[in-house]
Amino acid sequence: MARRDDSKFSTRMEDAAKARTEMLAKAKARAEAAKAGFEDRTKERQAIAAEREKRQKERAAEKAKAAAEAEKNKAALEAARKREEEEARIAAEKQKEADLQAMMAAQVEQKAARDARYAARKERGKKKR
21-29: long-range contacts at Cβ-Cβ below 8 A with a sequence spacing of 24 or more? Predict the structure, then answer.
């Protein structure tokens, strides 16, 4: 399809060169503006990084403190558990000894009752003769 405008090739080339020059000037202006704000952004980023580092150190200190306290609590719980186990063992031994004594007393009573029955039987046997 044929172009219907009356502009010459040289005019079109000049217009294109002007557009490229304007785009280059616009890009340079943006680059200059970026350079001007670069120091501010760099300082801001450094401040943010310093704050982040400070928070990380605080978190690490809190974590270490919590770990130390957890270790302390763990040691206390372990000591309490051992103490309870020892008390339970002693109580079990006492209960075992009491059960043994009760069983021995029951056996003595059973033997006495058996002996009494035997003696009564012998006594009845003597009366019959």
Answer: none
